[in-house]
Amino acid sequence: MNFAIVKLLGQRLLLALLSLLAVSVVVFAITSVLPGDAAQEQLGQDATPEALTALRAQMGLDVPAPTRYAHWLGGIVRGDLGTSSTTQMPVSELVASRLPNSLLLAAVTALFSVPIALAFGIASAMWKGSWFDRIASAGSVAVVSVPEFLVATLAVLIFAVKLHWLPALSYASDIESLGQMLKSFAMPVFSLCCVIIALMMRMTRAAVIDQLEAPYIEMVSLKGATPMRMVLVHALPNAVGPIANAIALSLSYLLGGVIIIETIFNYPGIAKLMVDGVSQRDMPLVQGCAMIFCIGYLVLVTLADVCGILANPRLRHR
Amino acid sequence: MKTHVSITPPLAAAKPVSPGYLARCRSSISWFGGFGWSGLIGLAILLFWIGAALFGSALLARLPALNSSVQIFGPISSAHWLGTDYLGRDMFIRVIDGASYTVGVAFIATLLASGIGTLLALFAAASGHWIDATLSRALDTVTSIPSKMFALIMVAGFGSSVSMLIATAAIIYIPGAYRIARSMAININALDYVTVARMRGEGTFYIMRREILPNIVGPMLADLGLRFVYIVLLLAGLSFLGLGVQPPAADWGSLVRENIGSLAGASAAVIAPALAIASLTIAVNLVIDNLPGRSLRKRGVK
């Protein structure tokens, strides 16, 4: 670890924190400043001025927006996300009951998709232009350019309706045995994996091909190394940075994909909680969930950057 | 530009940009030249959906016999080409009617996103330093919120009227268009003839419009196609969640949502609109892949 690299990492972290602050301003502005007076909306046009003033005071709308923002941000830093306006429960409690489910879904998806995507990506880079590469590439383009719910729908049609292996739309509420848990997990994980694998495979393939086109690889092949050795021993170590980057970026895609998948399979995760919050216009809940998603996203994106920096030998040995 | 930027992509450049993305964009507008069969198929599908969006509802209104049936989730038959939906309405008519929402809303949003993005990029490139830095930073903030999440927040704040959906999709995809257009505009801005124009005393607006814009129009049109695909997917996803186009109007995402109950029966009512979206987005991808600049590259001319 030298000074340059520490400085670069410090800059990245600072940038991530600044972005998070900016994101919190945007989230707060869109949900509670720009739409206008929430008290007016709740009471309707013909509310008495007294009732309006009372409700504003109760909702804390009688203080200026910057003060409200500071108060809200302070709450988030302390872990207090406010009170849900529909269920009257603390948002942090609601989130805490759902977050483990979502994290479990994400972890299981990552566990399956990362090794498969890496193997496919490296293989199709090795046999670039072969039938395997063409089918894999065409398949991944097809998967990323169709909506997630089509992937999920087709998965249900194949595995539940035609093959009867799994229940059509799983409801994870009544999990009693390990078998049931696996069954309710299988379909959401499969659908998410399809999309993530397609994305990650394409990026991995591009990273490895990038290395295989470098002059030193020509030297390696002139030296008489087998293609397997050329890729695994020579090209792969140099592609670790971009590949780690690709993994982190693909996993950050999970945060968006999970919204659709949790809804279609009725999975009790945090994305479903947020979608319900949006349709009931429960602002504190939406704000809390949005901030959690944005934090997760920024962590993954920053992690991708950090992997890129740490894996760059030109920076390590400067 | 700071030195570290060249080593790793900046935080904002972190959204997955597909490999060959710039290669796709690097193509001119002289269409049809290098179209292979896949490009022609894509073009045919695309033209069909554009036609359906423009004239479909008017043509189908002349066929009242098709309109309804007593059977819910009816099978594909000669009377109902795609079966019937959860209220017994003809699914073919619903899909054609939905085309004007899916294609139309996404197209307007795409035009706005690419137009505003390009305009801001030209402005940033032509006026230089602090305006460029401020604009780039401000738009980076939008990219550090995942696109679906941003859409959900916007819907929570402002509801989901059609104009709001267009604005939301446009805002989400402006930064992407801006980043691509800016990277090209910055390069062109550094060329000699732009310097000459500046020495001649031309204003910022003239340089944006006459010196830089003509050179980035081609790639930006290809980028427009990809942005259209993203926006179609985003809006379909929102409608699928019940937060996009509101009933009684329905785009293809809402049609999938309405009829999801028939999934266990493998009815055409849920599969048809989902496949319609897939056919549209894949068709646009095929057309972009066959744009001449790319096929010339494949043949090794360029």
Molecular structure report:
- The complex is a heterodimer of chains A (318) and B (302).
- Chain A has helices spanning 3-33, 38-43, 49-59, 65-78, 91-126, 131-144, 148-162, 178-212, 215-223, 227-264, 270-279, 283-310, 313-316.
- With 318 residues, chain A is mainly α.
- The termini of chain A are close together.
- The model of chain A has no long low-confidence stretch (mean pLDDT 81).
- Chain B is mainly alpha-helical and 302 residues long.
- Chain B has a domain at 81-291: MetI-like fold (Orthogonal Bundle).
- Chain B is built from 11 helices and no strands.
- The longest helix of chain B is centred in the middle third of the chain and has 37 residues, at 91-127.
- Chain B is elongated.
- Chain B starts with 20 loop residues before the first helix and ends with a helix.
- Classes of the chains: A mainly alpha (318), B mainly alpha (302).
- The interface between A and B is large, with 71 and 51 residues.
